[in-house]
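FIELD: query
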Amino acid sequence: MDVPTAVRAASTGLSVLLLGGLMTPLGQAVPVLGPLWLLLVSVVAFAAAGSRVGDAGLPHVHGGCAAFGSFLLVLPLVFWFPPAGTGLEPAQIVSAAGAAVVVGAAAGYVAGRRRDRSAPA
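FIELD: result
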């Protein structure tokens, strides 16, 4: 595990989550994207965090941990400012955490394959 890279990757994911959350009113104004806006932002954020694998030996584990770290960093804000009109459901939090790990691991796997394929022999 490349810890400094994982921390930077989690920070990148947090930045995408924050910017996407702030742009929610604009995203929901688009009829097709509106209902899916936060889901799309989350997937992009977790993929961005997971794809920064650095020198990790197990890029899928590294990517999953980095994406989960970005989820943990944004979680206090979710508790502080819950979504309008809805309460926080424990199942929703657990499923979002699971999605972070799965998307981050998939992005890490792909990034690791690209890194290893482009490395000089």
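FIELD: remark
Residues 90-118 form the longest helix (29 residues).
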